Each structure stands twice: as C-alpha cells, then as structure tokens.
Amino acid sequence: MTAADYRPPRWLRNAHLQSVLGSSPLRRRRAERRLAELGATTTEHLIDGGDGVRLHGLHSVVPGVEPRGLVLLLHGWEGSADSNYMRMTAAQLLGRGFEVFRLNFRDHGNTHHLNEGLFHSNRIGEVLHAACDVARRFPCRPMSVAGYSLGGNFALRLALQAPEAGLALTHAVAVCPVLDPARTMESMEQGLPIYLWYFERKWRDSLARKRELFPTFHDFDDRTLGLRMRPLTQWMVERHTDYGTLDRYFDGYSVAADRLARLQVPVSILMAEDDPVIPVEGFRALTLPANASLEIAPWGGHCGFLESARLDGFAERWIADRLEAVASA
After folding, report:
1. Which residues are CB-contacts of 24 (< 8 A; sequence separation ≥ 6)?
2. CA distances, 225 to each of 116, 204, 222 (Å)
3. Full-model pTM
C-alpha cells in the first residue's frame, strides 16, 4: 500500500472537509466500536518522564494473542490518547497482532494535574524518557513509534535520539508531521481562520485548567489568555522556557531541511498535498537518508485521509501496513 492507492470519492477530496470530519463525533463513535469489537484489554499507566515528571498512557493488548511488537502512539497538539485517529490506529494495529501504548503528552488528555510546569513542544526529553520506561515495562517485544501532526514531529525526534539513549526502536512512522514550526505558524495565520481559532480555543482552555490547579505558580490573568496564537506563544516561551525568543523556540523542535539526514532508525512519512495546516513544500526540501521514505498523497487534508462515508481512514491502515511489513521482515 502506498499513497498512490489513496483515492477517496470526489466528495471527500476537499481538504477542509477531510480535516473537520476526521475529528467529528461520528468518527469517534466508529473508533469506539472498532476497539470494542476487538475485545482488547486496556489498562492505565503512570509513566516516568524523568526529573519527577509523570505522564499518563493507555496500554492495550488482545488477550490470547502473542504480540508481534509494541507500538507507541503519539497524538497531535491538543489531542489525546483518545483522539479519533489514535483509537482508529490502535484498532488497526491490535487487529494485526500488535500491542499498543497510547501516550498522553503533559497537559493533554485531562492530565494537567500530574505536573506543575506547562507543556511545550521542546519537551522531547521527557517523552524520550517515557518511551524508555514503556519499553522497560513491556520488554522482549520489538518497539516502534507512530505519531500524527506534532506527535509525528515527536516520533521523528525520538528516532533521531533513540540510539544515543539506548532505546531500541525498529521503525518510526509520521503522518503530516510538523517540520518547520515557524512556517506552520505562518500557514495557520494566513490560512482559513477556523484552524487558528480551533487551536487557540483548545490551548486557552488548557491554560485556564492549569491556572485553576496551580494558582500560585500560574498567576496569569485573563488578558494573557485573550492573546492570539503568536503573542501567546511568545509569552509562554519567555516565561516558561529557557529559549528566550520565539525563533529559538521554533528552531528547537524543527526537523526541516537536513535535520533528519543523520537518522539511524528507519522512518516512513505520509503527507497530504492539500494539508491546510502544514505546508507541503517543506517535505520536498527534506534531505533524507536511504532508510527513510516519504509519500505524498494528493488528498487527505490535515491528518484526515478518510476513505468513505464510514469514515475509516487510509492513514491508520498505511501505518499498520508499514509496521506489519517491518515485523514480518
């Protein structure tokens, strides 16, 4: 299966429709049914992120099936382990004999109470530490990682840092990953306002929740919460990170241009030509090693890739196919 095999019906070839339907309640119900039909056992875990950081995740396995591998799934910004694409991908992988661990980033999935500090996109250290903890808890299984959007960016950075950290990753898969955060910010500011509005609303709600839980540490006022995306990000960078400027912060988690050239872990990347959030031109400018593959589909929107009115997704099948091929090899 390749990106060329993704041919949705004409009515589903609109990027905005793909992006919006992907997170719709209809797809949520479909995802819940798919997981229930498999009869998987899911347990909650508090994972060690290092330096006292605690992260939450969900481990799923089908009873009576000897797992052929463990897949760590990473969600996008302001998503969660229970996002539609996470559940649908988990169902695909469970159905093919994998066990799955869906990790919540800090301050995602109603986990704001676990850590005092705010989430930001350069917290790769705690995600790497958490991945190592997950691997220790479920040993003797080949481990892969897959992520969507910002989670795809984290997956690629995990692949870059895994060898030095002693984390044995067999493969990393990324769907519509953030490559150049500065360019992604510009794209949202210049694009259809609904995307910027969506992320601003979700982030403000998250920050308000954090303030409610830790009022002494987070004493910002409502005027701060009312800032637009760029000034709000700058406020967060200046007060809650060591990066100092927005440019340095964005550069800290960029994987654009030649940043992936030194990959030792094999990776597969799927992107949509019509992604309304992340510009596709950055993918054509990537310098990738021989063990990395990039596929660009004409359609799909941002992490949509819906195939029919049933709202099943091509991306989750594509991920499962890639990892199944690795496991078989």
Report:
1. 84, 311
2. 18, 6, 5
3. 0.98
The 10s digit of each residue's pLDDT in 51-79 is 999 999 999 999 999 999 999 999 999 99
Question: What tokens were used for 245?
Answer: 């400027």
**Total number of residues shown for the chain:** 329
- Rounded mean pLDDT of 223-252? 97
Structural tokens at position 272: 């949509």
Structure tokens at 278: 């992340």
User: Which secondary structure element, helix H or strand E, spans residue 55, and what is its range?
Assistant: strand 53-61
Q: How far apart are CA 225 and CA 173, in angstroms?
A: 34
User: Is the distance from CB of 297 to CB of 270 less than 8 angstroms?
Assistant: yes
pLDDT tens-digit series, residues 89-105: 999 999 999 999 999 99
Within 8 A by CB and 6+ apart from 250, the residues are 180, 181, 182, 185
Q: Is 224 exposed, middle or buried (0-12, 13-18, 19+ CB in 10 A)?
A: middle
Q: How far apart are CA 263 and CA 251, in angstroms?
A: 18
Q: Which of 319, 321, 320 is nearest to 270 (CA)?
A: 319
Pairing, β 53-61 against β 41-50? antiparallel
